[in-house]
Design a protein that fits this description.
Belongs to the ArsC family. It holds the Pfam family ArsC. Its EC number is 1.20.4.1. Keywords: Oxidoreductase. The chain is 41% helix and 16% strand. It is α+β, with helices and mostly antiparallel strands. The protein folds into two domains: 1-32 and 91-113, 3-Layer(aba) Sandwich (Glutaredoxin); 35-90, no CATH class. It has a four-stranded mixed β-sheet with strand order 2-1-3-4, with helices on both faces. Strand 1 (2-6), helix 1 (11-22) and strand 2 form a beta-alpha-beta unit. The radius of gyration is 14 Å and the shape is globular.
Length: 113
Amino acid sequence: MFQILHNPRCGKSRNCLAFLENAKAEFEIRNYLQNPLSVSELQELLTKLNLKPIELVRQKETLWIENFKGKTLTDKQIIKAMADFPILIERPIVIKENKAIIGRELEKLEKFL
């Protein structure tokens, strides 16, 4: 079973969700803005994605620009920022067991399925 970290207000996230539905994939939806990830869940997710914390941040997000851009932050501080402000997390993310991808590109999502 897949899990999608979903923001219903995001077009890319809605497209990813529709793709999963059309593919008849079994999945559960987690609206990560209403049900944020903990620091430990983010650390586990980063391992599954094989990304550094900064690579998961939406760096063009106003909140990031106004509060964090240009500052020297440790990985731990970046993860804490994403836990405190989940809007900073890139989306959508599709998780299956020990692997995950950012599902913005449907071609990559198709290969992942």
